[in-house]
Specification:
4 strands; 10 helices
Length: 223
């Protein structure tokens, strides 16, 4: 049995948790709270000097970080046949293409959310241009909608993949700041489909409590 260190507020942590639960894997979840500095202990620093979550520690002590690497490691090391990360080389390459795009682009959703909701509460002035960030987020969401989704149910066809899980977990955070998805109707409908998956609901329980407080009329509270 492996151990997965997560923070429920962390989008990459939720993506790992969702994927492993869909795969019905047996593992130990170790929740930490970054906001309380629980990721800065000596134990965590030894596992990941960057003090970032998620972290996976396999049964033999092998340790790996970064959510996409974690998920792919478990699927590959256990030789799991799954539509989350199909064995077809070309389809895997396309999924990997999105996952590489994700880090430098879709993750801007977090930067925007942080500037709007978190930084002001902490009294932090980031110096970021909020209007520019909003523009970048909208550009990235439009790209996902028009390039990846088009007329498909999910990013790569009729099945949910780890790309859908990672992307949706990231974008969901925008609901805490009442982000307007009107420019992205296909993307919004895709998110609603992904969030209907029970494992996504389970891993998003904490963030949904925040959404309920910050955005009580959010459409995702009704699924």
């Amino acid at each position: 049995m492996f151990k997965l260190y997560i923070d429920w507020i962390s989008q990459p942590s939720r993506a790992c948790k969702t994927a492993f639960d869909i795969l019905h894997l047996k593992y130990e979840t170790i929740p930490l709270w970054i906001q309380y500095g629980q990721h800065k202990t000596e134990e965590i620093t030894k596992l990941n000097p960057l003090q970032q979550l998620p972290i996976l520690v396999d049964s033999d002590g092998f340790t790996i970080v970064e959510s996409h690497a974690i998920i792919k490691y478990i699927i590959n090391s256990r030789n799991i046949q799954t539509t989350l990360y199909p064995s077809d080389h070309q389809l895997r390459a396309k999924i990997d293409q999105y996952l590489d795009y994700h880090h430098g682009n879709t993750r801007k959703c977090f930067t925007y959310y942080y500037n709007i909701l978190i930084a002001p509460k902490l009294g932090i002035k980031t110096g970021d241009d909020i209007l520019k960030l909003e523009q970048v987020v909208n550009q990235n969401l439009s790209y996902i909608q028009n390039y990846y989704l088009k007329d498909k149910d999910y990013l790569f066809g009729n099945n949910v993949t780890i790309a859908d899980i990672s992307a949706c977990s990231e974008i969901m955070q925008l609901n805490t700041i009442k982000f307007d998805f009107d420019k992205h109707p296909k993307l919004l409908n895709w998110m609603l489909r992904v969030m209907e998956i029970q494992e996504m609901k389970d891993s998003h329980q904490v963030i949904m409590k925040i959404i309920r407080k910050q955005n009580p009329n959010c459409i995702f509270l009704n699924i």
